[in-house]
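Try this one yourself first.
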């Protein structure tokens, strides 16, 4: 499943892909260096000034290291997969402005990809460091969500975790090709929602910034 890993080269506003991406076992290049500004993918992430939910807001500079960590942790190594994940998080969180469902305000729904409470519980159970916290939280979905959103790595890691654990190989292989049809399959068959013009525009921005062929 693992392809060459994404490494971080971070300025205050940009997340970059290195020119050589090496897999742990059999290193081989998978795509050429393609500087992809996180701000190009999520234009409103440049600042948190005036954010409605200021305590939840993260700028591109703050988000980028967490996103890269999630790619490394969950084996997200193709530009197509990375673009799909970033565009999903940007769409669901208003360009990283919030991590809790405020519209309409469903209890327990959140993290940067707005996971449903049942998935948040499953995700939290997969993180050994949260064992004691989960024992205290019990079935309180708000408490479980707070365990995840209070830690940047967990907050931004949920989308990549979901892809690894809930998207089948057909979807992931498709995303590695970088086609828009493959992205549509990811949205409808894995995420389980509808393709909209706004979602697709976000995907196209992310794909272009990540240097996905054909975008």
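Now uncover the answer:
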């Amino acid at each position: 499943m693992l392809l060459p890993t994404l490494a971080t080269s971070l300025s205050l506003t940009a997340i970059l892909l290195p020119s050589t991406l090496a897999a742990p076992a059999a290193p081989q290049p998978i795509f050429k260096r393609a500087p992809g500004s996180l701000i190009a993918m999520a234009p409103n992430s440049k600042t948190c000034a005036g954010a409605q939910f200021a305590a939840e807001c993260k700028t591109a500079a703050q988000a980028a290291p967490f996103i890269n960590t999630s790619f490394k942790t969950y084996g997200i190594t193709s530009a197509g997969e990375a673009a799909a994940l970033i565009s999903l998080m940007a769409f669901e969180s208003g360009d990283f402005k919030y991590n809790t469902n405020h519209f309409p305000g469903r209890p327990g729904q959140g993290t940067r990809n707005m996971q449903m409470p049942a998935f948040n519980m499953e995700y939290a159970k997969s993180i050994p460091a949260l064992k004691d916290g989960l024992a205290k939280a019990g079935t309180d979905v708000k408490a479980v969500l707070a365990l995840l959103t209070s830690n940047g790595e967990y907050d931004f890691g949920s989308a990549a975790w979901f892809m690894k654990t809930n998207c089948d190989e057909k979807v992931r292989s498709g995303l590695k090709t970088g086609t828009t049809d493959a992205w549509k399959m990811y949205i409808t068959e894995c995420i389980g929602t509808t393709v909209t013009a706004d979602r697709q525009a976000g995907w196209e921005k992310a794909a272009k910034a990540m240097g996905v062929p054909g975008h």
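Discussion: The chain is about 50% helix and 0% strand. The CA atoms of residues 19 and 112 lie 28 Å apart.
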